[in-house]
Amino acid sequence: MIPLWVFVLIFAGGYGVFSQRDKIDWLQFVPEDIQAQIPFLAPPTPATTPVHVSLPTPTPTTIPATPEAVSIPTPTPSPSPAATPQASPTPTTPWEQKAIRGIYLSRYQVTNNASEKMIRDRVRYYKSQGFNAIIHGVWGNACTMYQSEVMQKTLGYASCPNQFQDEWLTWMIDEAHQQNMEVHAYFEKGIKIDENSPMFDLAVEKGWIVPGVDRTHPGIDHYVLDVEIPEVANFFTNILVEFVQKYPTIDAVQWDDYLGYHAELPGKVDRTASLTTFVQNMIAAMKQANPNVSFDLCHHNPYWAKRYFAADWQNWDIDRAFIQVYSDENFQEEMKYVRNHNGIAITERQFNRVDELVQNSEIESILLFPLSGKPEETAAQLRQITVD
Predict the structure, then answer these.
(1) Which of 16, 29, 288, 371 is most solvent-facing, going by the fewest CB within 10 Å?
(2) How confident is the model at residue 90 (pLDDT cuts 50, 70, 90)?
(3) pLDDT exceeds cutoff 70 at 385
(4) Separation CA 154–CA 158 (nearest Å)
(5) Predicted local distance difference test score (pLDDT) of residue 64
(6) Sign of torsion, CA 301 302 308 309?
(7) Is residue 179 exposed (0-12), middle (13-18) or buried (19+ Cβ within 10 Å)?
(8) Sign of torsion, CA 318 322 323 327?
(9) pLDDT single digits (tens) 121-174
(10) Is-above-0.70 flag for pTM?
(11) Could you give all domains of the chain from N- to C-terminal order, each with its CATH number?
(12) Can you list the pairs that 293-296 forms with residues at least 24 positions away whose Cβ atoms lie under 8 Å?
């Protein structure tokens, strides 16, 4: 007979083993063939967490549908409207066909304390009167109409003694170019001065003036600076170079018959060769500083210029030459020179000649110098002549 306590011990031990079966590796003591025969003693099968694998979604192959034929109706053309007649361009007048239609303005006619509006209005006025170029004084009597470092360094003053706005020429050039016009800088009086020049006393003191008085124009005593003197020649060259650098968009510079020595000066000295050398050097320096600026001259015909002013300008390497014809004397004789060069400069005294000048296709350009000192009125008069 088996004691009761044995059964209790077997039962308690079995219960403990059963309850801790997932923590005790007791199966190592039980043969595998017996494990298979006792299902409840086998270890539980662990729950398996499914693993989701992202598989690429296959891109469906799109088979394009065969497009249906679409019948596009042919539009019925509308009747063409009657052609609107285009206004034929107004034929240009012979006056408008001139290459340069310029007017001279003395160096004081715009600069005297003129406002920007006044200057721009003035430019537009001359445009309305048929001009395409303003030839405005920027130099005269040995002083500039702008602040000049060369003037300050050489003479001790920076400009002419008048009340000009520093930007007057900048405004003029800008407005002119907006109006498809040009501005030519007029070096009025050239190498001549009178006793009112701020330079006069210094020029006398330094001996910069050639002997004698130039009375080419009655009523005015002029004194001619001697460009054979290096200081004088360098001064003019530096002035011109400074100007075309200071105003790089200026269209041209123009010098006149005051670039010369009158034959009646005492001593009968022939200064032709020295004047030619001076001008050639001055032009070369200007072109090196600003090759876009035209160097122009308004002078007597080449024969008279050389014979009476030592100005052999045909050998000066200038860009354009305009012949001064300020008198009716020998007018027709002058025309052959005008036709062979770039144009003519006239005054109100030649208004009776305007029609023949305008109609003459061989005359390339016409410049107007208002002797009256009233350029606006003179321009209006010329406008009436050229329009009628």
Answers:
(1) 29
(2) low
(3) yes
(4) 9
(5) 36
(6) positive
(7) middle
(8) negative
(9) 999 999 999 999 999 999 999 999 999 999 999 999 999 888 899 999 999 999
(10) yes
(11) 101-387 (3.20.20.80)
(12) 293/244, 293/250, 293/251, 293/252, 293/253, 294/184, 294/251, 294/252, 294/253, 294/319, 294/320, 295/252, 295/253, 295/255, 295/319, 296/184, 296/252, 296/253, 296/254, 296/255, 296/320, 296/321, 296/322, 296/342
- Neighbour-count burial of 8, counting CB atoms closer than 10 A to its CB (0-12 exposed, 13-18 middle, 19+ buried): exposed
pLDDT band at 310; cut points 50, 70, 90? very high
What does the pLDDT read at residue 112? 83
List all residues 6 or more positions away from 35 whose beta carbon is below 8 Å from its beta carbon.
Answer: 27, 41, 42
| Pick from 221, 214, 231, 227: nearest CA to 267 | 214
Q: Is the pLDDT of residue 212 over 60?
A: yes
CA-nearest of 209, 313, 184 to 257 is 313
Give the residue carrying structure tokens 């770039």.
Answer: 342
Cα–Cα dist 297/292, whole Å? 16
**Tens-digit pLDDT profile for residues 184-198:** 999 999 999 999 999
Q: How far apart are CA 247 and CA 230, in angstroms?
A: 26
Question: What CA–CA distance (Å, rounded) separates 227 from 357?
Answer: 37
Here the contacts of 281-284 (C-beta below 8 Å, separation 24 or greater) are 281/233, 281/237, 282/233, 282/236, 282/237, 282/240, 283/316, 283/317, 283/318, 284/317
Task: Report the percentage of the chain scoring pLDDT > 70.
Answer: 76
**Residue entry with tokens 């034959």:** 263
